[in-house]
Amino acid sequence: MAAIVEGEDRAAASRGVAVLLPLPLERPYDYRVAEGSMPPPGAFVRVPLGKRDVVGVVWGPATGEVGSERLRDVVEVLNLPPLTAELRALIDWTARYTLSPVGAVLRMALSVPSAFDAPKLPLGYRRAALPAPDGVKLTPARQRVLAAVSSQAMALGELAGAAHVTPSVVSALAKAGLLERAPLATGAVFAPPDWKKGGVQLTPDQRAAADSLAANANGFSVTLLDGVTGSGKTEVYFEAIAAALRVGREAVVLLPEIALTAQWLARFQARFGTAPAEWHSDLGTALRRETWRAVAGGQARVVVGARSALFLPFPNLGLIVIDEEHDSSFKQEEGVIYNARDMAVVRARLAQIPIVLASATPSLETMINCERGRYQRIALPERFAGARHPEIRVVDMRAERLPRQSFLGTALRAALGETLAAGEQSMLFLNRRGYAPLTLCRSCGHRIECPHCSTWLVEHRLVGRLMCHHCGYSVGLPMTCPACGAAESFAACGPGVERLEEEVAALLPAARLAVMTSDTIASPAAAAEFIRQVTAREIDVLIGTQIVAKGHHFPLLTLVGVVDADLGLAGGDLRAAERTFQVLHQVAGRAGREQRPGRVILQSYMPQHPVIAAIAANDRDRFMAEEAKSREERGLPPFGRLAALIVSGADHDAVEAMASALARTAPRDGGVEVFGPAEAPLRLLRGRHRRRLLLMASRDVDVPETLRGWLTRVPPRTGVRVQVDIDPYSFL
Description:
Elements: H1 2-14, E1 16-20, E2 29-32, E3 44-49, E4 52-61, E5 76-77, H2 85-98, H3 102-109, E6 123-127, H4 140-148, H5 156-163, H6 167-176, E7 179-183, H7 204-215, E8 221-227, H8 233-246, E9 250-254, H9 261-272, E10 277-279, H10 285-296, E11 302-305, E12 317-323, E13 331-332, E14 338-339, H11 340-351, E15 354-359, H12 364-371, E16 376-380, E17 391-396, H13 410-421, E18 425-429, E19 438-441, E20 458-460, E21 465-467, E22 474-475, E23 490-493, H14 497-507, E24 513-516, H15 524-535, E25 541-544, E26 557-562, H16 576-588, E27 599-604, H17 610-617, H18 620-634, E28 640-649, H19 652-664, E29 672-685, E30 688-698, H20 703-712, E31 720-726
Parallel strand pairs: 8-15, 8-16, 9-11, 9-12, 10-11, 12-15, 17-27, 18-25, 18-26, 24-25, 26-27
Antiparallel strand pairs: 1-2, 1-4, 3-4, 3-5, 6-7, 13-14, 19-23, 20-21, 21-22, 28-30, 28-31, 29-30
Helix pairs in contact: 2-3, 2-11, 4-5, 5-6, 7-8, 8-9, 16-17
């Protein structure tokens, strides 16, 4: 009897498929299919789950783990191109590496549920197929509509305009039976880029770099395009995109900030004659659906977007570009925690295609991979069109005697006036949003803290609110201190960009000022308008956070002032020095990008710090060599491996108990060391208490497998979440 049941299960498996659903599930579920209609791996299917139907992806043949009598039927095989084998492999690889449910990773690729519904074609009006009913009065206006309409559907506005009537006349004719509704003909959502259209004249260095990228067009390769700021890296990798288009393949370009897309899109259109598809959180629902379907169908030949664009279902991907590859915003910190740059390299390897990593300040990980021969490196050491590197001056703020409530030193104040008088533009950089980072009671010292996070509220004077930059909580500034009752006793401590704007306005009352932060630039459209204003010389002084440091090209910008160059050096983050160097180098690179010489003034209370000294000497390679030596001595990435466990929950005692249980069962041998648990720097975040453990391992340790074994030894606790962050970038 057992043999008979076993045979039945094998027969059921042969008529079934394993379907992965875009839910936090660890494995696919088996479903039955009708005989003779086996969908291939990667096919999109609609299947029952509980009392509802959901869309999933065929992951392979049924496992046979469930008896045939318990299998449910596939409801429908959708008319969409299947997910490619390389994307399915990427999803499996990412799930294993990040210790995430494979269904949660699939959800990143199937992020637009409405894309699986049959598209609703817009309707217009055409001449009715049936004879006109008797007794319909044909006014002159109605006669003009009938003369203008044809057998092809026309949009309501188009038809009304052609007949010089109001839309109500068209609607009345349809109601009378002389017109009928019909789907409008739709053209391609995204016109194909013209790879044959020429771009700007490349310099000899750029041409050599472009030719080198073209030589890597077939097969897997990783190439670092290492060019100084203003060297024209974008124009070079455009040639790699053209090479992919020439052989009928698609390309995806990842940018770290949506604010960067405005100038990038203009340059792309100039080179290829049309705009690429965009993919980021600001897209409307309809465009997001159309874009996803266009990518899946191979109609969106080039996509530029945020990190999530990496998981789009390209049917024939031929090139991946990661611009500003060093940028920490490629690391996703919520949900599936992954680094899009690293996963992009994995996708390129699985698809056997080239990937280009572009940066003026490459990450130490990428530089070491180049040194070890894993990646190729192409250098662009000179700025485009003969532009000179800016002069950099470090001002020792310990010698300054700033007036009260002033944050601009003597040299920077003078340079701002000189630049304005010369008809040129200035940029002030301070990586701190809002008006002031701390609000303090003068009477008792009480600081206003977020009730949901262990952090101070930041004053945003433009909107009249105190805000938490972690959970979004906001409140008006209280009239009396909640601790001592003193009236109007609160003082703003420290500068933010809004406070800096106030100081510059008093210093240069005739100057036109603007603040650029993630608060003021909330969409690509807002970024495009802001960039237009700067380029059109409608802004004299631009004040911003790190959003201004990357990628922008402003021809008349000749002065960059860094108000607090030491700001990023505080704390125990292992990448603090590297990140600070990168952002200072990038923001300095905004100055003097064309014929007018540029200058940079760095205000620092630690001018002797290696980061500040390296920026002043424009000696990136020496700084990176010293940083590599320091990391290697301590066994830190990229010479060792790190992984963090973040234990969080609403119940403090339950979090403590779970963290202690993890510490008791932690691996302690085979090149592995575990530190903690320790209270996280942000011990309370969005109402959840947090503890951290850090695993440190040698390069030869399989960290995901080590973590997987560790976590299986500790049973889960209700209400407590354990997040795994392999290769952590944030230590908060």
